[in-house]
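Example for tutorial group B:
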C-alpha cells in the first residue's frame, strides 16, 4: 500500500544499473490488479459506508499510479528513479492527509458501516495484494524506487488484515469506531512511510549527483 511504504532499513542502490529481467512484466501485472481493486473497493466503500475501505481504495489507486511511474522510469538512470520515488512519496503524504480528514468527518456522523461488505472485500483485497507481493518478492532489495514498490505491496496486505479486523469490530459492536480507527491508522502510516521514502530517495539523488560531478566529462 502506498500508505504503508515504510523503509525498515537502508539498502544499497543499483547506481543506475538496468532493472532485472522480468521486473517490468511484474509491474504491469501489479498495475492491472491495483486498478481493478481500486474500482471494486471504491464502489464497496461507498455502498457500505466504510471509511477504511475507501481509504484502501484510494491506496490501491495510489499504488497503481506508483507502478505506472515506476514503469515510466524503469530504463532511466538512478537520478530519475530517485525523482520518481520522491513523487510517490508526495502521493503517500497526500493520501495520509486525505484519509485522516475523511475519518475525522465520518466520526461526526456516527453511522456504522456494513460489516459483511467490509469483510468480504477486505478478503479479496488481501488475496490480490498477497499475489502481487509474491511476484515482487525477488526484487525487494533494489534501489529506493524498487524497494518502495515492494514495501507498499507487502504492507498493503497488513492493511487488508486490519480492514477485516475492523469489519469484525463493527459487526460485534455495531459501532463505527473500529472502521474509523483503522482508517486513521492507515493515514498515519502513509505519513510515516512517505517521509521514509523521501529520506532514502534524497540520499540516492545526492549520491547520483555526486557521481555525476566527479565523473570525467567528455571533451
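The residue assignment follows.
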Amino acid at each position: 500500500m502506498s500508505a504503508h511504504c515504510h523503509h525498515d532499513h537502508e539498502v544499497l542502490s543499483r547506481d543506475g544499473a538496468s532493472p532485472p529481467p522480468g521486473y517490468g512484466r511484474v509491474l504491469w501485472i501489479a498495475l492491472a490488479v491495483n486498478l481493478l481493486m481500486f474500482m471494486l473497493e471504491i464502489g464497496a466503500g461507498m455502498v457500505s459506508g466504510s471509511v477504511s475501505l475507501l481509504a484502501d481504495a484510494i491506496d490501491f489507486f495510489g499504488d497503481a499510479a506508483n507502478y505506472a511511474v515506476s514503469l515510466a522510469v524503469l530504463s532511466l538512470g538512478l537520478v530519475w528513479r530517485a525523482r520518481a520515488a520522491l513523487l510517490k512519496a508526495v502521493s503517500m503524504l497526500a493520501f495520509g492527509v486525505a484519509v485522516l480528514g475523511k475519518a475525522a468527518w465520518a466520526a461526526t456522523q456516527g453511522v456504522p458501516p456494513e460489516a459483511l461488505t467490509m469483510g468480504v472485500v477486505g478478503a479479496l483485497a488481501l488475496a490480490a495484494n498477497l499475489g502481487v507481493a509474491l511476484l515482487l518478492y525477488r526484487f525487494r532489495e533494489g534501489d529506493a524506487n524498487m524497494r518502495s514498490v515492494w514495501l507498499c505491496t507487502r504492507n498493503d496486505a497488513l492493511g487488508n488484515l486490519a480492514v477485516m479486523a475492523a469489519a469484525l469490530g463493527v459487526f460485534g459492536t455495531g459501532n463505527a469506531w473500529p472502521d474509523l480507527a483503522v482508517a486513521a491508522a492507515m493515514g498515519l502510516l502513509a505519513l510515516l512511510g512517505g517521509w521514509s521514502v523521501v529520506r532514502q530517495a534524497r540520499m540516492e539523488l545526492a549520491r547520483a549527483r555526486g557521481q555525476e560531478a566527479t565523473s570525467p566529462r567528455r571533451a
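The domain at 19-212 is CATH 1.20.1510 (Alpha-lytic protease prodomain-like). Compare this with the pattern of hydrophobic and polar residues in the output above.
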